[in-house]
Amino acid sequence: MKFSKHILFFCAVSGGLLASEPTFGDLAVLLAKGNFGNYVKPDASLEQCVAFLNRQGVCFSLFDLMDPDKTVTKEDFARVVGQTALLFSGKAEVVNGCIKKPVEGESWVDYCLLNDINLPSIWDGFVQKTAEGSLPEVRAVFGRQARSGDQR
User: How many domains does one find in the chain?
Assistant: First the structure.
């Protein structure tokens, strides 16, 4: 599926730039700059990346972003991947500012499975890229609080 190639691309371009465990800030920056690089400047801040994604309906909660230690679960990741797939397909329905999960599948994980999105492989690639520390955009917001490879 074309969308899986986009996600694999954004995981590949990150090349070990994320935190030791995937955080919402890292996911937002990586997704915005990797998948929406034509619309998001290469030097965009975490705030600019999140604002762009939220305007598109790929929702990131301020509560999740404010905690530099809150990690992305597989369910959270599936939601972002599913919302992005719907956006790329032109089938996104935005309700209250967020892309709504279609009725097919009980969860975002189910939605991804039913739509041939190889979520386990994409998740593994994302997690693998988190070993070297938080992205500079995330560290700029949280300073020493954000995890990095040498601060454990």
Answer: 1
